[in-house]
């Protein structure tokens, strides 16, 4: 099936190819989309899940797994340069139109739900300076978040290149506070505090033990996925890259830099504050930890850094949201209207749909007081299957020998793909069944867009295998709705 879809030529040339996104802009998209809110909340979130020993095991698994995924995106970008759209393109090329649609739709929903999480945390952080914003889900906070959303909307309508250039500047600005935190934490680090209860045998969080080593590792895994989401950012923009080879380079460069910062922030925090106390530090916990070390200016400094970081992440993810809708629309997998661009080269219809959804979810959080953590767990769960399909596609290519007829590396790429696939499968398991059930409901509702698109191009809606997949999605959704109706499953 891969040959049927992967060999299909691109249906529209990149806009103004001579002025495509360069390595710096692509790397900034990766770093900008990965460094959002997660790293600033990492100290307390991890301390509430795992002691240093299990934490190191979990980071080792995450580091290897995400590195393999980075290599997957790098390899696929070079071996399948005619496949655009990252997670969407690879799922469609390998497994058909409907699987490609689910990858694009799941990724898109994950991205705009993540934007809601960013806006909630942004105004919760501004509550440090402006009282009415405290908590991020007050009426003044939601009104202000809505205003900011539509300002970013207007900027993005001016064109992708304009927004990408702003993202480069913001990415540089938001890394500076993190480096300052690492430098101060390294000076104040106490090895004895770090090793005091290395395996978490005695520490209790809110009166509860942390559990076994494996339990601790599993509990921290979903948080680590959230901080790495965005690793595929450059591949989503493959069609707009000035050089296709820069897509893979940007992915690996962005991953390596962000991994180093994440490890330093997380591990050094355990040597500054006792774990039980660290788990209770309010988000953004990096600010609270630094305040204990240097005083109130430290919390203000990190809070300002987080505001800049969240603004940058919001821009990066709005860009990714609209791009992941535009490409399927060009290929008859989403409605054609979502591919239409304005005079500045921005997919305006996709942008309107995306930000109307974000606005609706902001109002939902106001009515239901959904927390930042609820939102990131939902966003993370929706992106796990698109990652799995990308890894599966690399395995499929290596097993079939597709593109390896006259070049080496088949065994290496098979191993990398299998490791990435196992890791993606582990993440689906670690995420929990409840999020898979909720994801199925989103997929079922979204399938209406797919049916609309297939009828627009007068194509068969489902092949027999795709009909079977749709049946699984439908049955799973029915189970989810039944559980919601009985109060046994909550959306947020």
TrEMBL record:
Organism: Mycolicibacterium arenosum
Pfam families: AA_permease_2 (PF13520)
Name of protein: Arginine-ornithine antiporter
Alphabetical keyword list: Amino-acid transport, Cell membrane, Membrane, Transmembrane, Transmembrane helix, Transport
Main location: membrane
Keyword match Transport: yes
Oxidoreductase recorded as keyword: no
Family classification: Belongs to the amino acid-polyamine-organocation (APC) superfamily. Basic amino acid/polyamine antiporter (APA) (TC 2.A.3.2) family.
Localization, UniProt: Cell membrane
Transmembrane annotation, as ranges: 21-43, 55-77, 98-123, 129-152, 164-189, 220-238, 250-274, 294-325, 376-399, 411-429, 435-453, 465-485
Topology in membrane: Multi-pass membrane protein
InterPro entries: AA/rel_permease1, Amino_acid_antiprt, APC_superfamily, Arg/Orn_antiprt_ArcD
Role according to the record: Probable amino-acid or metabolite transport protein.
The encoding gene: arcD
């Amino acid at each position: 099936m891969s040959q049927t879809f992967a060999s299909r030529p691109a249906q529209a040339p990149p806009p103004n190819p001579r002025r495509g996104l360069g390595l710096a802009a692509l790397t900034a998209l990766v770093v900008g989309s990965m460094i959002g809110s997660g790293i600033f909340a990492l100290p307390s979130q991890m301390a509430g899940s795992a002691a240093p020993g299990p934490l190191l095991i979990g980071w080792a698994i995450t580091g290897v797994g995400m590195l393999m995924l980075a290599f997957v995106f790098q390899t696929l970008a070079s071996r399948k340069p005619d496949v655009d759209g990252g997670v969407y393109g690879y799922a469609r090329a390998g497994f058909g139109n409907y699987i490609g649609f689910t990858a694009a739709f799941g990724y898109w929903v994950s991205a705009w739900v993540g934007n809601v999480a960013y806006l909630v945390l942004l105004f919760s952080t501004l509550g440090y300076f402006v009282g009415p914003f405290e908590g991020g889900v007050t009426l003044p906070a939601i009104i202000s978040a809505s205003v900011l959303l539509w300002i970013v909307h207007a900027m993005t309508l001016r064109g992708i290149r304009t927004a990408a250039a702003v993202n480069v500047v913001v990415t540089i600005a938001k890394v500076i506070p993190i480096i300052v935190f690492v430098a101060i934490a390294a000076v104040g680090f106490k090895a004895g505090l770090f090793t005091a209860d290395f395996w978490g045998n005695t520490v209790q969080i809110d009166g509860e033990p942390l559990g076994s080593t494996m339990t601790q590792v599993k509990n921290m895994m979903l948080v680590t996925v959230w901080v790495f989401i965005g690793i595929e950012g450059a591949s989503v923009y493959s069609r707009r890259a000035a050089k296709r080879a820069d897509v893979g380079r940007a992915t690996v460069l962005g991953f390596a830099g962000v991994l180093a910062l994440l490890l330093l922030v997380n591990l050094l925090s355990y040597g500054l504050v006792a774990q039980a106390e660290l788990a209770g530090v309010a988000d953004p916990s990096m600010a609270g930890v630094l305040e204990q070390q240097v005083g109130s200016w430290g919390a203000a400094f990190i809070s300002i850094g987080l505001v800049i970081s969240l603004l940058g992440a919001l821009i990066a993810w709005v860009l990714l949201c609209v791009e992941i809708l535009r490409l399927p629309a060009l290929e008859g997998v989403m409605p054609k209207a979502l591919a239409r661009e304005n005079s500045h080269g921005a997919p305006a219809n996709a942008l309107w749909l995306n930000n109307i959804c974000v606005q609706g979810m902001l109002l939902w959080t106001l009515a239901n007081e959904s927390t930042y953590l609820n939102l990131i767990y939902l966003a993370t769960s929706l992106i796990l299957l698109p990652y799995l399909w990308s890894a599966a596609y690399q395995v499929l290519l290596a097993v079939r020998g597709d593109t390896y007829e006259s070049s080496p590396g088949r065994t290496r790429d098979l191993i990398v793909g299998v490791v990435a696939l196992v890791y993606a499968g582990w993440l689906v398991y670690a995420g929990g069944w409840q999020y898979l059930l909720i994801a199925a409901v989103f997929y079922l509702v979204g399938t209406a867009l797919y049916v609309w698109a297939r009828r627009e191009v007068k194509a068969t809606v489902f092949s027999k295998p795709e009909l079977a997949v749709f049946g699984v999605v439908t049955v799973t959704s029915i189970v989810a709705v039944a559980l919601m109706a009985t109060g046994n499953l909550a959306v947020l």
